[in-house]
What does this fold into?
Amino acid sequence: MLKTATDKYQDIRDAVRALCAEFPAEYHRKIDAQRAYPKEFVDALTQAGWLAALIPHDYGGSGLGLAEASVIMEEINRSGGNAGACHGQMYNMGTLLRHGSSAQKQHYLPKIASGEWRLQSMGVTEPSSGTDTTKIKTSAVKKGDRYVINGQKVWISRVQHSDWMILLARTTPLAEVKKKTAGMSIFMVDLRQAERSGMTVRPIANMVNHETNELFFENLEIPEENLIGQEGEGFRYILDGLNAERTLIAAECIGDGYWFIDRVTKYANERVVFGRPIGQNQGVQFPIAESYIEIEAANLMRFRACELFDAKQPCGAQANMAKYLAAKASWEAANACIQFHGGFGFAHEYDVERKFRETRLYQVAPISTNLILSYVAEHVLGLPRSF
Ligand SMILES: Cc1cc2nc3c(=O)[nH]c(=O)nc-3n(C[C@H](O)[C@H](O)[C@H](O)COP(=O)(O)OP(=O)(O)OC[C@H]3O[C@@H](n4cnc5c(N)ncnc54)[C@H](O)[C@@H]3O)c2cc1C
It folds into this structure.
């Protein structure tokens, strides 16, 4: 494995690597070919407590900071796995932790920490609104002690491997609110019960082995106690969770980036064409060196975001910039890796094409690169709002 500077998280790195080593490349390759869910891998991570890193001790988690949590995600991807199968379990509960009532936290968090319940899904995106979340049409109308949900979501991940979903819906129509970000609320949805009473799940076949779905709601009834926080404040609650999510995804991209650099440097040293290793050519060396430099820079920004987050300081700019840099760097590394493997980069048995597909996602989801640029331009640099 590529040598990188040791840091204070070496114990976590060693332990996660040891667990990941029990699930070698053949395992992930087979799961990808079968378009299956890496159940055994996710179960092992859960049982070892890694996915409960951010849940406080009081609720049965390990109470670690975002820096430690990000190292866990990084190591999963660096070992050749894909944290995308389970990262929701680590960060979705943050909404509940920050905005749930004490009774809700007591009810959900210990079972999420133990893995008895999975809260791996978050339903925000809709087909007609896209990134413009304030235009969502899914509605939640209060009737007695219940909310009745109607509408549609798209690209909602891990629904089939989750017990609960956090759902964003409009409780006040857009036309009736003073501010477009007001009037949305979040709910805990019991997914198995919902499937029996008004929610239809339609899987979306896609480029990555990523379980994601269209959801249709027709008069789905949710008990009022499943509302998190105050009615109408849901958009703000979702935004509150984004910094952790972006930083963790940045760490996954950094893990991918190191994996690609590791593979391509090894291959470029070994593969002899025209009587010398291909890595002796500067046309091969430079793209690899360039993406390595970018990964290292992204890594610094990731730890800066973690440091601020863990100190409860504002970190929106750093979390967004870390995600931007890391997703771009891992993609550049992936491109160099597949390019310099020549034809073999396309063979399943080298795993390069699988990781290439997996890392490409992160320039689009959970937030696209353009929207990060827009955030930095407008919120950090004070340029005029474009939307
Ligand atoms: C595999 C996968 C899993 C996902 N999982 C989830 C999930 O679990 N839950 C969930 O809620 N969502 C999920 N998503 C949705 C994801 O968050 C969105 O796809 C993403 O935010 C982009 O939204 P969109 O697809 O609607 O693109 P659009 O909003 O339609 O945008 C299309 C393109 O136009 C660009 N664009 C749009 N507006 C502007 C602008 N003003 N300036 C410049 N460029 C602009 C965007 O950057 C983007 O590249 C997932 C998506 C995928 C592909």
